[in-house]
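Quick one, tokens below:
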């Protein structure tokens, strides 16, 4: 048996579209495949022309941070249990991260704790939709409105997920999606920025194109393009967009493949929760999720370490996830210490992610589940 944690999935015309991009003579960014991707992404999210492809979710977050008018006296609130890009984008603008703990059920930002952290210096709040599941977005938006905060959704894991029927990534002032090879929809590396402010979307276009109005020039809106503001090279190449287009065209079938694996895991491993051996993902009534991650929350670090070792001996790669940012060297440089956010630290030591990707099917879920049940003496 050899089951990797993730295997990139070819859904249909990816390689054909890449060859077409080469034959068409446009492989750089903002080409015909990129435009088609943005149009399809807008359709999937039920938006009107708000999506901009970027080189990564990280670069989308960096653009959003540039548009948020942050200064060295600004603070931004985010969960500690997240990827470093959720913090880096804003730290690069000189802002100070204020880490909130997470809810033990959803593993998303604890909104009561986040609300208690708001000061006169707080400018931005960054919900991270972990595993394609969100916190209570109505409550979060009410907190933001009351305190005049910019909301930037880190929706890296959330394409296809929704809150009370509205797509995640469409609530905030800005949101960022990821098309990294470990996500539901992939193109190796890639991302998208969503802006709910038309004027700021136009500014985002400038930032994304090295600080120039080159996009307006190619649309015939200006007769030459020049340096307009700070920016960088954040546009996805049309080679990557060609691959991405095939994935977006097969969005529903890809989501179904993942959901089939997720559902099999949930069915086979439910006994672990019944017997108090592990907790399975919790899906709030307000969420429709995208089966991005299937995880187990185990009793302790020792159990997780032994289960990872057992699965590895069987040729199955399972992995833990984030080390809380507040416990990192950078977190400590901002004055944080271990013990300050206990839920984040406990989840970090007990969460185990199981192999789940669009290339797998229920047979893979059965093989992995069989070894987990054997480990716990349930077969």
């Amino acid at each position: 048996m050899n089951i990797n944690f993730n295997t990139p999935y070819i859904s249909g015309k990816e390689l054909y579209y890449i060859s077409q991009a080469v034959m068409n003579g446009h492989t750089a960014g903002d080409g015909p495949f990129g435009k088609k991707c943005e149009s399809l992404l807008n359709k999937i999210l039920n938006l009107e022309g708000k999506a901009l492809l970027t080189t990564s979710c990280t670069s989308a977050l960096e653009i959003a941070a540039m548009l948020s008018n942050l200064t060295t006296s600004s603070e931004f609130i985010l969960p500690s249990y997240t990827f470093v890009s959720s913090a880096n984008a804003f730290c690069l603008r000189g802002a100070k991260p204020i880490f909130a703990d997470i809810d033990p059920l959803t593993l998303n930002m604890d909104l009561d704790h986040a609300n208690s952290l708001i000061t006169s210096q707080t400018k931005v709040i960054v919900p991270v939709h972990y595993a394609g599941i969100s916190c209570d977005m109505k409550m979060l938006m009410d907190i933001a409105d009351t305190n005049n905060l910019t909301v930037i959704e880190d929706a890296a894991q959330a394409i296809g997920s929704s809150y009370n029927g509205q797509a995640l990534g469409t609530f905030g002032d800005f949101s960022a999606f990821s098309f990294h090879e470990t996500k539901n929809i992939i193109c190796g590396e890639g991302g998208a920025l969503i802006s709910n402010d038309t004027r700021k979307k136009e500014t985002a276009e400038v930032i994304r194109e090295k600080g120039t109005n080159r996009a307006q020039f190619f649309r015939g809106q200006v007769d030459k393009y020049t340096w307009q503001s700070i920016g960088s090279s954040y546009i996805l190449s049309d080679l990557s967009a060609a691959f991405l287009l095939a994935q977006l065209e097969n969005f529903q079938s890809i989501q179904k493949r993942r959901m089939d694996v997720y559902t099999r895991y949930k069915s086979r491993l439910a006994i672990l929760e019944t017997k108090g051996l592990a907790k399975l993902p919790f899906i709030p009534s307000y969420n429709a999720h995208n089966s991005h991650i299937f995880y187990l929350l185990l009793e302790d670090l020792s159990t997780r370490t032994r289960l990872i070792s057992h699965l590895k001996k069987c040729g199955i790669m399972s992995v833990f996830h984030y080390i809380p940012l507040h416990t990192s060297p950078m977190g400590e440089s901002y004055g944080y210490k271990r013990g300050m956010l206990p839920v984040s630290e406990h989840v970090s030591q007990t969460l185990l992610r199981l192999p789940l990707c669009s290339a797998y099917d229920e047979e893979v879920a059965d093989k992995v589940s069989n070894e987990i049940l054997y480990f716990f003496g349930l077969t």
